[in-house]
Amino acid sequence: MEQFINNAVALGHEIWTYPSNSHPEAQIIPTTRLDHIRTMRKMDVLYVRIEKKSLDICAWALPPRRLLYGFPIVAWEFNTIPDDVALPSKNARDLSAIKQYGRGCDLAVCVSSLLGQVVRERLGLSRILVVPNGSDPQLFCSDAHLANRMLPFQRKFNIVWIGTGKEKWHDLQMLREAAKIIYDEMDLEKNILFHLIGPDLAGIMADMPPNVYYWGGEYYDKLPNWLAAMDVGLDLMKPGSGDYRSPLKLFDYMASELSVVSTEQPQVREVLDKMDATDLLVEPGNANKLANVIGKLASNRKRVKKLGQLGRQLVINHYNWKRAVTDTMSELETLLQERKGRQGK
Question: Could you tell me which CATH number the domain at 2-132+321-344 has?
Answer without folding.
Answer: 3.40.50.2000
